[in-house]
Every structure is written in structure tokens, then in C-alpha cells.
């Protein structure tokens, strides 16, 4: 073994000992300081850091620095949703559900329209908040399924499922057992009517206005 190789091995031993004394996820000092602390040139340090990165001892985050250990795995879609606030879910619904209503106006079959109208009849006859909420959830789901696009329906169901608990609690806080104002039911009726008339632009516009109204009532001024 030549002197260069021997010196490099000795440098690696010192660098490895320095890193192994640190906790995982610790950020290493900037290269000039680290080179001084472990007693080697910056060129040698860069070479050895590349080797340590390749073996998984350290990892680099562009723009942030070099860290001990392996990077954390990226969050799964489920983890992202679990960490989403109710406001974030409502914002996502504001982007997605108007498009669902528009698509439903194009794709809905006669049976879908009949189901929407039957749901509206149940909503109008509701006398308790719990009954009204069931029909509200059913109506929005029926609009999603009326697109006849399984991926869009799954996207809606996922957002709705993750927002349900918080939304239900907020409804209880705002309405304290009483029914929502009649204009909310009227908004639903207008959306269903636009879908039945095969007017995608109107259905989209009405759904967006409805969701904005709901968001403002639940999270802004009543």
C-alpha cells in the first residue's frame, strides 16, 4: 500500500470516528470547518464524503447541507392526508368538487339524476341536523359518482373521509343542533337542477359558490 493510500485510509478512519460520535440526523459543519476539525484538506474531505454518502453513512440535502445517517423516506399519501388541516381539505374540495359537478352534468345518467332528486327530497324533509348531514354527504357523493370516473370518485371519497370528523364537529359548534339555514339546501337544489339540465358551466359555478359559502359560514363569520 502506497503512502497516499495509507494517508487516505487514516483520514477516513478519523472522519468516520468523528461522524460515528454524532447522532443520526445531525448536520455536519460546513466543509472548511469540518476539514479543519478532522485535520485534512478540503479536497480529501470531499472525496471521503462522497464515499460515505455512497455507503449510506451520510446524506446530502441540496441547499441545506450534509447530515448523518440516511434520509427519511418520503411521506406516503396517507401521511400527507393525516397531517392536513381541515382548512387545507376544504381548499382541496374547492378545487375538485366544482369540476366534479361540471363532469356530472355531462356524464350523469337518468338514474343518477333521479338519485340526486330523491336525495334532495330527503334533505328538504330533514328535521334534525344529523338527518340533514347524512343527506348532505350523500348528495356530494352522488355527484362524484355521477361522473362515472372511478379515480375522481376515489379522490373525492378520500378527501371527504379525512375531513369528516373535523367538519362534523364544526357543524355542531356552529349550528348547535339546529338545521343549517334554508339557503344551503337551496344551493344544493340549484346544483342538482344545473346537472339535470346538462349545464356543466353553471353546475361548476354553483358548486364553487356553495363551498365558499359553507367555508365562510363554518370558519368565518356565521
TrEMBL record:
Alphabetical list of PANTHER family matching this protein: TRANSCRIPTIONAL REGULATOR, GNTR FAMILY, UXU OPERON TRANSCRIPTIONAL REGULATOR
Domain HTH gntR-type: 3-71
UniProt protein name: GntR family transcriptional regulator
Keywords assigned: DNA-binding, Transcription, Transcription regulation
GO molecular function: DNA binding; DNA-binding transcription factor activity
Coiled-coil zones: none
Top-rank taxon, per record: Bacteria
Amino acid at each position: 500500500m502506497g503512502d497516499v493510500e495509507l494517508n487516505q485510509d487514516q483520514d477516513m478512519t478519523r472522519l468516520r470516528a468523528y461522524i460515528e460520535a454524532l447522532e443520526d440526523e445531525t448536520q455536519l459543519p460546513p466543509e472548511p470547518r469540518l476539514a479543519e476539525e478532522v485535520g485534512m484538506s478540503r479536497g480529501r474531505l470531499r472525496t471521503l464524503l462522497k464515499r460515505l454518502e455512497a455507503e449510506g453513512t451520510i446524506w446530502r440535502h441540496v441547499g441545506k447541507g450534509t447530515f448523518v445517517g440516511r434520509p427519511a423516506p418520503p411521506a406516503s399519501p396517507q401521511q400527507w392526508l393525516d397531517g392536513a388541516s381541515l382548512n387545507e381539505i376544504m381548499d382541496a374540495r374547492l378545487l375538485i368538487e366544482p369540476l366534479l359537478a361540471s363532469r356530472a352534468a355531462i356524464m350523469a345518467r337518468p338514474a343518477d339524476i333521479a338519485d340526486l332528486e330523491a336525495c334532495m327530497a330527503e334533505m328538504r324533509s330533514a328535521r334534525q341536523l344529523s338527518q340533514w348531514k347524512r343527506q348532505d354527504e350523500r348528495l356530494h357523493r352522488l355527484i362524484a359518482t355521477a361522473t362515472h370516473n372511478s379515480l375522481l370518485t376515489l379522490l373525492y371519497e378520500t378527501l371527504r373521509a379525512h375531513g369528516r370528523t373535523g367538519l362534523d364537529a364544526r357543524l355542531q359548534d356552529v349550528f348547535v343542533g339546529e338545521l343549517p339555514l334554508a339557503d344551503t339546501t337551496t344551493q344544493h337544489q340549484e346544483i342538482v337542477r344545473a346537472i339535470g339540465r346538462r349545464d356543466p358551466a353553471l353546475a361548476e359555478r354553483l358548486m364553487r359558490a356553495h363551498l365558499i359559502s359553507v367555508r365562510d359560514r363554518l370558519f368565518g363569520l356565521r
